[in-house]
Amino acid sequence: MRLPATPSRALLTGVIAACCLTAIGNAQPQKPHEQATDSTPARAGESTKFPAPPAVEKTSVTQQTTHIGGQEIHYTATAGTLLLKKEDGKPKASMFFIAYSRDGTADPAKRPITFAYNGGPGSSSVWLHMGALGPRRVPLTDEGFPVPPPYPIVDNEYSALDFTDLVFIDPVTTGYSRNAPGVNPQQFHGLEGDLSSVAAFIQEYLSKYKRWSSPKFLAGESYGTTRSAGLSSYLLENDGIYLNGITLISSVLNFQTLDFEPGNDLPYILYLPSYTAAAWYHKKLPSNLGDLRKAVAESRHFAANEYTLALMKGNQLTPAERTSVAKQMARLTGLSEQYIQESNLRVPIFHFVKQLLRDQKRTIGRYDDRLEGIDRDAAGATSEYDPSYSSVLGAYTAAFNDYIRTELKWDSETPYEILTGKVRPWNYKEFENRYVDVAGRLRDAMSQNQHLHVLVANGYFDLATPFFATEYTFDHLGLDPKLDGNVSMMYCESGHMLYTKKACLQSLHQHMSELYKKALAQ
Question: Using CA atoms, how far apart are residues 364 and 412, in angstroms rounded to an integer?
């Protein structure tokens, strides 16, 4: 998840773990020398300039059982590293992974395989691994709220191992993945460098474990969805790897939809229905707005019509029109009409999470706005921390570090980087002076590979990657109508890590199962 910060353009280049980094291509322009490549000349003392543990391949293989849907499942768990190599055969990185393959399948080489990861950039894959897809998970309450330490691990009765083998990937500098000694890690810390290294890992894994004939899927969360969209075309064009399906959880493909900057009114429009959902949950809406879906539907309509027109008019908006819009916004957000007027009809996310419950001296979470926080200064403009980040960090950190050692029999003197800022600055050189947008790459992959199916999972209470912004992105994807049926959307009354709520985990499992059946039935 994203570390606490103040709302500014610099904020948009911070670290997020389970969530996306809403970085903008021109947020921190990169000089050409700042992105290292394989061709970067070696310099004297380079081996000490970029220290790292020895780059070696090793594995720990254990036989395990879990229970999925009431059935006992036997599987093989492999924790290990794969080396990425330069053209001269020398290692440039060691990438850590945890793979699960179901035992007793008729033809293991043809069983579906899914490569999964989180985002950040700077996050390991621990969240999807131990929260959603893996055979073991970290349980919170059924609603997805925090529990007191110590933190148990239980069988994941909704694990995707039910219908696919799984490979959880930690990008370089996250988890146990590291650059090789003497290799500049900056070459991996950027949109294109990240795609190149993760694609190289996938290709190497398919070869080493003889999985080229398997149906291939990706699953990513937040910036992991950015990575998945990029990989869909990168793998196709560079490696000839055609995917069967992709699961996008809490998506961001077009970063313009999330950047609250002067002159960019789009986020204010696209966040409004999520503000409505948050206000509905905290009982800040009038009763005549009805249930959650009715309230959200009205907010969608207002945002896409009167509100969009009002923001387009700018200073041409008449006082009467401004008052009318402010009244409707107050009705749909739970904020006062005066506050909305003072905000020039534009309330950025980091003000909203502080303002909604200010009268109760409470803040709400960005990643899951159902959760409440307590600030030292209730009069401040923005919250001091994100309670939805705090609710999961301790549980996942403790549970994973115990699990990897006791159940998977892997130990290392290298610390497991669950969430790290060491990948900063993240390089968006290809998008300098424009917003990062990889939606077109997904469209290209789906157009060239017309058997590619995509599931998009959304949380109503997610203020990091709002559902209306995702809908906007896919409505503007430019897919041929023939391919509309290749995209499906699911919604859940939860936050960014929607699977922390048990009912949403079950729903995600069901929708993913349907995606795989549809993709494999062709």
Answer: 37
CB count in 10 Å sphere of residue 439: 19
Q: How many CB atoms lie within 10 A of CB 447?
A: 15
- The three-state secondary structure class of 199 is helix
Angle between helices 266-281 and 292-302 (to 10 degrees): 160
What the block records as the tokens of 40 is 């970067």
* CA dist., res. 514 & res. 522, Å (int): 13
Q: What is the pairing mode between strands 136-137 and 154-155? A: antiparallel
Amino acid residing at 133:
L
What would the DSSP string read from start to end of 339-370? HHHHTTT---HHHHHHHTTGGGT-EE-SS-TT
Q: What is the CATH number of domain 10-256+393-457+468-488?
A: 3.40.50.1820
Two structure tokens written together for 80: 């290990």
Residue with token string 């081996």: 47
Q: Per-domain residue ranges for the chain? A: 10-256+393-457+468-488
* Three-class secondary structure of residue 290 per DSSP: coil
First to last CA, the chain: 37
CA angle 406, 411, 414 (to 5 degrees): 140
3-state secondary structure of 478: coil
pTM of this structure: 0.92
What residues have CB less than 8 Å from 257, skipping those under 6 apart?
266, 267, 270, 469, 472, 473
Which of 321, 352, 319, 312 is CA-nearest to residue 336? Answer: 352
The structure tokens listed for 188 are 């991996």
Four-residue CA torsion sign, 318, 334, 497, 66: negative
DSSP codes, 29-81: PPPGGGS--TTSPP-TTHHHHS--------EEEEEEEEEETTEEEEEEEEEEE
Residue 36 pLDDT: 47
Is residue 217 within a helix (H) or strand (E), and if so which, with residue range?
A: strand 216-222
Quote the pLDDT of residue 279. Answer: 98
Give every CB contact of residue 5 below 8 A, 6+ residues apart in sequence: 11, 14
In the structure, how many helices (H) and strands (E) does the chain have?
A: 14, 14
Q: What is the pLDDT of residue 324?
A: 98
**Segments of the chain scoring below 70 in pLDDT:** 1-48
- How far is it, in rounded angstroms, from Cα 58 to Cα 61? 10
**Exposed, middle or buried: residue 9 (CB in 10 Å: 0-12, 13-18, 19+)?**
middle
The H or E element spanning position 267 is helix 266-281
The pLDDT of residue 51 is 86
Burial class (CB in 10 A: 0-12, 13-18, 19+), 37: exposed
Which tokens go with 261?
A: 């900057």
Contact 179, 185 (CB under 8 A): yes
Residue 14 · residue 4 · CB < 8 Å: no
